[in-house]
What we know:
single chain, 14 helices, four-stranded mixed sheet, seven-stranded mixed sheet, alpha/beta
Amino acid sequence: MLREALPKIVTPLPGPNAQKIIDRREAAMPGAIKCGYPCVIKRGEGAMFEDVDGNIFLDWVGGVGVLNIGYSHPELIAAVKDQSEKFFHAMMNITTHEPYIAMAEKMNEIVPVKGDKKKTMFVNSGAEADENAVKIAKSYTGRPNIIVFTGAFHGRTQMTMAMTAKKAYAIGMGPFPDGVYRAEFPNLYRKPEGMTDEEAIQYYIDKLEQVFIEATPKDATAAIVFEPVQGEGGFVPAPIEWVKAVRKICDDNGILMITDEVQSGWARSGRMFASEYFAEAGCAPDIMTTAKSIAGGLPLSAVTARAEIMDKVTGGTIGGTYCGNPVSCASALKVAEVMEREDYPGKARAIAEKLNKTFNEWKEKYEVIGDVRGMGCMMGVEFVQDKKSKAPAADLVAKIIDAAVQKGLIMEAAGTYNNVIRFLCPLCATDAQIDAGLEIYEAAIKECL
């Protein structure tokens, strides 16, 4: 059964059938939508997929965090089939449908934002969720500006390209919307030399305070937006003491704190949402966005906030044709049910324990591994030319990823300098599959050194 299988390569990559489809892709699609992996999926189960040539791959990317529950979960298939036989679409501005309401009720129950009474709206992608969160914050506060951070990735709409730090995602796309200002994110691995972690956190708080002096006054700032664990920025977790300080700045100045859990949500962090850790420390966000794994692969994203915030939004400024599609909502309800029943956060913590042990052993063994970090099962390994200089080793990372795929393991780079290998494997992966992945990963490192 594919769900229990291990990686197995039976043809040179890409195989002959895959090459034909890749050639068709090149002729039919814009080259700007890139894919460097020499395989074409035929079917997937759990953490594994088979390509059109019969090669079997272990997927440690999971559609970039979309497949936390795995490929083709039988209960999701049944839920989608059941809803699709009733109706595919009903726009909430025209005909109310219950799957939207039921999923909104579920989100209001489980999302750790401030406030007792919560409300949720749905859109289609992470970028749409982040953009709508900003609109909601502006509507509630009546203020024009937001603060985002170095290393941030929030999407590819015009607003979220402005919010995203890495401008490789926005070449030639300006001018960007005004009112988006950037502070330095607390990357403790790359903190100023000689500082303790405690001193560095204060340094980054001071950097944020400087933005209020030089860019956007506090009374003109609607929201501070950040990822609990930066995704494209290199899987850098926000230190809890820094989050507490951001929460206090927001509380003291009428600013909303928004956590972007597009990638960190849905059990990836070892909790259903990473913001649960913040809530337990007394620094829950005001607004939280989530997408990716919410519906197991169908397009859906969500924005949740307390009712007081949501009820102040100007009519007509949020929503859209496909928002909260009933088939996607049916799938999302089943994702939430399965993840709670089968303790997916617990699965993430168990996998993370093994990875932490192994990755840190590699860090001692290999001069090129500078840092191992993350939150739960959202983990990154940062590769450097040497530990002293910390100079990024992007070329090495590219070679490791290429070597691994030839052995049946799919991995992906991240980070400002593309020198971090991220771990986003489906959380239903078996122990044997995790072990096989680690074996291939280390073999690829050795081969490329």
